[in-house]
Amino acid sequence: MTTIEHTLTMENASVAEIALRYPQSISIFNRYNLDYCCNGKRSFTQLCQKANLDAETVWAEIMAKQENTTNHQLVFENWEPSLLIDYIVHHHHTYVRDSIPQLQALLNKVCQVHGDEHPELEAIREEFNELADELIHHLPKEENILFPAIKAMIDKSAGRPMLHSVHAPVAVMEDEHETAGRLIKSIRATSNNYTPPAKACLSYQLTYKLLQEFESDLMQHIHLENNILFPKALALA
């Protein structure tokens, strides 16, 4: 996989370098119809100019998106359950919903182009689709059932319906987390720790890079719930 050592600037960066360094930029490239794959080696400023776009404006969007998605060292253990719930929903649940379509599109593309030569890609796609389906059905259960019940325990005057006990839904969520963890670990193993072939194209590299990022986010997501939020909720119950 390509390693980027030098400091990227708007003037010296190629589109491919930006996409690899800042995967969050992909959604911006897609929105402006900037080809980061076939034309990935082209200068960012030249490609913007060809598309009649102001390079400084696009670069500022990329930097802002990168800053907003950078993980900071936060002491989640000290957070109140309501604040932790809001963070999980707005940060992790949003990330999952935004990332799944992008990864599915990339997996479909690399499977179509490279699937015959690399049959493991089809196995990865099948497992990711299973993981995606699991998560898409999992998130509403938290948002519509468990999380409101936890908040109702904290603020009983809020008038929200409260479960007789949060023990059962917590156990269900933990079981579903186990399933999701098993699937992402299998994807990691099948992809050889997200290591693309030596001559892999940019789309292939990006697929593995974003899968690795997805795993990292999912692991923190599950950690915040299993090890911090759920124990706090059970203590309240």
Total domains, how many? 2
Q: Report the sheet with the most strands, covering strand number, pairing sense and barrel closure.
A: none
One letter per element, helices H and strands E, the order comes to HHHHHHHH
What's the end-to-end separation, in Å? 49 Å
Low-confidence stretches: 1-5
> What is the global morphology?
globular
* Mean pLDDT rating: 87
Q: Tally the helices.
A: 8
Tell how many strands the DSSP assignment holds.
0
Radius of gyration: 20 Å
The quaternary state of the protein chains shown equals single chain
Strand content: under 5%
Helix percent band: 55-70%
Give an account of the 3D structure.
With 237 residues, this protein is mainly alpha-helical. It folds into 2 domains: 15-69, no CATH class; 77-236. It is built from 8 helices and no strands. It starts with 14 loop residues before the first helix and ends with a helix. Residues 1-5 have low confidence and may be disordered.
How would you sum up this structure in a few lines?
The protein has 8 helices and no strands. With 237 residues, it is mainly α.
